[in-house]
Amino acid sequence: MDCLDRTNVVQSVFSRNIAHEQLYKLGMCNKPKGLPFEKFSTNELESAFRNIWTDNADAISVLYTGTPALKTDFTRTGKRSHKGAIDDGKHSMIRYYINNFCDGYNHDCIDICQKKLKPTAQIGKRPWLSPLKIAFFVLLGVMYASYIIIP
Fold this sequence. Notes:
Layout: H1 3-25, H2 43-65, H3 72-77, H4 82-113, H5 131-149
Helix pairs in contact: 1-2
């Protein structure tokens, strides 16, 4: 679990406590105890909070990492599952790939939106042809050539 997912858990605790306080002040529930994972008075409200918060976590995580948030099975249901663990493993592998090979472009896009970076014209450059892609095509060519040359 990385800092994005830990931040989501902490923010969900704050959000849950604030929602309890607001519902209490509106006279819609009993006085909250202030527990970090205190459940809401009805199952419908608890389920709605969990689903909305999980959807929020997924949206932010997709924007920042390219994958949905980790541990969403726990956030949505309050229980860990085997499918959730497998999904977390899959998302972690995708995050590793994106962080090591594709992340620069994503951060440049976010920086442009936040006006931290100003785009400039790059005449004659091909950003789509990165050194990693060149190495991949060279390796593919060598493998193909060795397949043809060596029977």
